[in-house]
Amino acid sequence: MNITLLDGGMGQELLRRSHRKVTPLWSADIMLHEPNLVRDLHCEFIQSGARVITLNNYTATPYRMARDGALHEIHHIHKSAIQAAQDAIHMAGQSNVKIAGCLPPLVASYRSEVILPYEDSLKDYRHLVDLQAADCDLFLCETMSSIDEARAACVAAKESQKDVWVSFTVDDDNPSQLRSGEPLSEAATQIEAIGANAILLNCSHPEIITQSMAFLKDIKTPIGAYANAFQCIHGLKPGGTVSNLKARDDLSPQQYAPYAIKWHDMGATIIGGCCEIGPEHIKYLHQEFKKMKRII
């Protein structure tokens, strides 16, 4: 099974490179003020071997932008994110790179208790799809912590007639369930029934993702994974900043790769990295998978 290699995490890497103060809009703020940082990081991921890059619009949702008094900037941020991705592909000289539109949690990552009602979520996701659909090759509904949130994102994205990948974040203490407490197997079954073209796991500890892969065994669609390298996510609050989240010191590129190889052994064909997984991780993965002839 050949592997589609994703990029890694954008937000934390961009904050390391930026001189701006961290805000609740973090990566979107950089999109407004330092778009060349985004372009250059996309380019590094491509040069490292990624063949799918995700738009840097994770925090640019209608709810978050309105909460922080920046809703008037939402169109500009999405246009800027699209331009940065397109420019990076041109700079890297790789015409076979796909752009994934990003449909993130609308209110806050990991916090299923604050998700919007289904119909409100569907309305906002349709808005985000409209902003991105003309310029992306597929949609990635990522870091979904509940079934309803994933359903709304998937339904809206499927209306674009593009491929839709849905990625769940799982409980770091219980690999059988989402952060909402709902069963992962049930979540995957429901999203597969809607017509998702792939089901993934992301933004959880790599050890837990490895265990969670067993709960996708009955899924017929392609599966994948991209873990984070946070020590703990409990310090991230809705409306807060990511400045207090710390990276692990035991997930170097060489230490991350065995997890990714294991995921492929378990059936994953879409693999990359999430928060704190940078271009060097993706480069090392690409080299290892090439040696193993899992990437052509």
Fill in the keyword field for this structure.
296 residues, alpha/beta, TIM Barrel, 42% helix, globular
Mind describing the biggest β-sheet? 8 strands, parallel
Domain tally: 1
In which order are the strands of the major sheet placed?
1-10-9-8-5-4-3-2
Estimate the global geometry from the Cα principal axes. globular
Number of helices: 11
Low-confidence stretches: none
Mean pLDDT: 95
Radius of gyration: 17 Å
Describe the structure.
- This protein has 296 residues and is an alpha/beta fold.
- The protein has one domain (4-291): Alpha-Beta Barrel (TIM Barrel).
- Helix content is 42%, strand content 16%.
- It has eleven helices and ten strands.
- The strands form two sheets. An eight-stranded parallel β-sheet has the order 1-10-9-8-5-4-3-2. A two-stranded antiparallel sheet has the order 6-7.
- Helix 2 packs across helix 3 (35-48), helix 6 (118-132) runs parallel beside helix 7 (147-158) and helix 10 (253-265) packs across helix 11 (279-291).
- The protein is globular, with a radius of gyration of 17 Å.
- The termini are close together.
- The model has no long low-confidence stretch (mean pLDDT 95).
Q: Secondary-structure blueprint of this entry?
A:
Blueprint: E1 4-5, H1 11-17, H2 26-33, H3 35-48, E2 52-54, H4 62-67, H5 74-92, E3 98-103, H6 118-132, E4 138-144, H7 147-158, E5 163-168, E6 170-171, E7 174-178, H8 184-194, E8 198-202, H9 206-212, E9 223-227, H10 253-265, E10 268-273, H11 279-291
Parallel strand pairs: 1-10, 2-3, 3-4, 4-5, 5-8, 8-9, 9-10
Antiparallel strand pairs: 6-7
Helix pairs in contact: 2-3, 3-5, 3-11, 6-7, 7-8, 9-10, 10-11
